[in-house]
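Re: that chain you flagged

S.,

Sorry for the slow reply, it's been a week of failed gels. I finally had a moment to sit down with the sequence you sent. For the record, here it is as I used it:
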Amino acid sequence: MSGTVEVEQQAGVAFVTLRHPGKLNAMSRAMWRALRSVFESIQLSPDVRCVLIRGEGGYFCAGGDIAEYPAFRFNEASLRDFHENDVWGGLQAMLDCDVPIVAQIEGNCMGAGIEIACCCDIRIAAESARFGAPIAKLGFPMAPREAALVLREAGALSAREMLLQAAVLGAAEMKARGFLSQVVASAAAASAALVSAYHVAALAPQAARLNKQTIRALNRGQALMESSPSATDPVVNEMRGAYRYADSAEHREGIAAFLQKRKPVF
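Prediction finished late last night. Pasting the structure tokens below so you have them in one place:
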């Protein structure tokens, strides 16, 4: 069995589960491709307001499925195809997703796991969770775009320790370094993530998608608040329609509910 990425939806939340029995949910090539398909579908679904991604059996993801590696890693072309198409295809689909993503992180969050976690907006971890990318023990570096992702989200110190020392860091340390939103008792991780996901789902879905688009654009280009932004700046070009929501039903409902002292219905 090469593992699966399964999705089910309930009350506006899409539950994405990484499953690879006996391998602590290590990502196979088939799972990377499935991850891409799942998130591309979620992006197109107007009914999904939040995603909760988790691993089966008390583990998030222990890395890549090393048993598959001899079949493609020793040839430059096939190795490039694996990282640039399979792996980055899945990660890019998560990064391109306008729906907020909550990560429920338990047990091992290594290599592929840390990369997937880096694509999430809110990260909630069990106190027993462990984070790292000890691929130096396997004799290869992290692919460039994946390394850039980990560097940006986990920070330079964590990235260097994980990649150069094969360091494994605990949840408390990753929270102190700003990577995690919450660290909770191991038995409470699932419930804490669920509360977070349903809280996000109850808020304005259009606003959430627009906020993610804005954050993504700002990460790609210069700040909008500079005195004379260039008309060709990628951020300026993308933000030309930033106020088109003005006459939307969601915008009107949010303001009206506040003025009427009632809970908005989005």
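What I noticed first: The CA atoms of residues 63 and 112 lie 4 Å apart.

Talk soon,
D.
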